[in-house]
Amino acid sequence: AMRQLPYFCRGEVVKGFGRGSKELGIPTANFSEQVVDSFPSDIPTGIYYGWACVGNGDVHKMVLSIGWNPFYKNTKKSVETHIIHTFKEDFYGEILSIVITGYIRPEKNFDSLDALISAIQEDIEEAKRQLDLPEHLKLKEDNFFHLPEGKIVNNR
């Protein structure tokens, strides 16, 4: 997996393809292209886990997928974060801060939507277990998650 772990990243949440919530029942937050382009180019694609925080909110467990978007004929990498928490509303335009702490598995193709959904559910369970370990848990408290006041977008 990624040599650069833990990897710290923050950026604005933009509208994705709307696939996550609608088809899978698993909402994901997409970073802008600019943020995705700033990721090290040698990051292996696949499923990762870590911590995420929207604006100046609470820090939650998350699962992250780094992959090639077939929609763009495999020229554009996409980075999608599923925060393991139920939000009452969308947070497009907010600043999402994430720390990627570990790697779960490579990307793979699935024969059916059901197979994909159950794989994601397993990824989520694995992420929850890993993030309870002390070396990952300590990153939840990292100062990275405390945005300076000026940085908050759409402070509600």
Describe the structure.
With about 160 residues, this protein is an alpha+beta fold. The chain has one domain (about 5-140): Riboflavin kinase-like (Elongation Factor Tu (Ef-tu), domain 3, Beta Barrel). The chain contains 4 helices and 6 strands. A 6-stranded antiparallel beta barrel has the order 1-2-5-4-3-6. A hairpin with a 4-residue loop joins β3 and β4. The longest helix is centred in the last third of the chain and has 19 residues, at about 115-130. The termini are far apart. The mean pLDDT is about 85.
Task: Reconstruct the topology from this structure.
Blueprint: E1 7-14, H1 19-24, E2 29-31, H2 33-38, E3 46-54, E4 59-68, E5 77-83, E6 95-105, H3 113-131, H4 134-137
Antiparallel strand pairs: 1-2, 1-6, 2-5, 3-4, 3-6, 4-5
Give a short synopsis of this structure.
The protein has 156 residues and is of the alpha+beta class. The chain has helices at 19-24, 33-38, 113-131, 134-137, and strands at 7-14, 29-31, 46-54, 59-68, 77-83, 95-105.
Quickly list its features.
Elongation Factor Tu (Ef-tu), domain 3, globular, six-stranded antiparallel beta barrel, alpha+beta, 31% strand, 156 residues
Share of β-strand residues: 25-35%
Write down the CATH topology: Elongation Factor Tu (Ef-tu), domain 3
Query: Can you count the beta strands?
Result: 6
CATH superfamily: Riboflavin kinase-like
pLDDT averaged over residues: 85
How would you spell out the order of helices and strands?
EHEHEEEEHH
Overall CATH architecture: Beta Barrel
Termini separation (Å)?
37 Å
Helical proportion? 10-25%
EC number: 2.7.1.26
GO biological process, one term: FMN biosynthetic process
Organism: Loxia curvirostra (Red crossbill)
Keywords: ATP-binding, Flavoprotein, FMN, Kinase, Metal-binding, Nucleotide-binding, Transferase, Zinc
